[in-house]
Amino acid sequence: MFDLKSLKPKPKKKRKRVGRGTSSGHGKTSCRGHKGQKSRSGGTKGARFEGGQTPFYRRLPKKRGFKNYPFRVVYIPINVEKLNKFDGEAGLSQFEASGFSGHGDRVKILGNGKLEKSLIVTAHAFSKKAKEIIEKAGGKIVKC
């Protein structure tokens, strides 16, 4: 019958003690075999070892361009032709409301297309051509 009185803790297995003489059964080579890389201390291959072929991290070119990730400034590009849908003012809040959002913190106006209205455009940056087009149309540029 199986009841609480018959329960006993699992017997503990003794730790294998290697290198304690030949009569222990785990002496001399301490279960490591004879010679070879694995028999020696520190004899393991590194995590990046690829069997002797040139490792992946060494096959890549050294200079791939400097990427200043934590500090770089990413702009959302908006072309001048897309400003035609705004009336009077085109600013950051209007850009967000009309779906001009992307992977970036700031907005840059680029000079592709034609502007048919005079607008007050507010953005973080403008290209030279965009400035010319906005001012030709009678508009004004405001930098944030």
From TrEMBL:
Keywords: Ribonucleoprotein, Ribosomal protein, RNA-binding, rRNA-binding
One GO molecular-function entry: structural constituent of ribosome
Coiled-coil regions listed: none
Basic residues compositional bias, start-end: 7-19, 29-38
GO cellular component, one term: cytosolic large ribosomal subunit
Residue stretches making up the Large ribosomal subunit protein uL15/eL18 domain: 77-142
Gene Ontology biological process terms from the UniProt entry: translation
Region (Disordered): 1-55
Transmembrane residue ranges: none
Pfam family of the protein (one): Ribosomal_L27A
Known partners and oligomeric status: Part of the 50S ribosomal subunit.
Family: Belongs to the universal ribosomal protein uL15 family.
Function recorded in the entry: Binds to the 23S rRNA.
Annotated HAMAP family: Ribosomal_uL15
NCBIfam families: rplO_bact
Protein name as annotated: Large ribosomal subunit protein uL15
Lineage summary: Bacteria, Bacillati, Saganbacteria
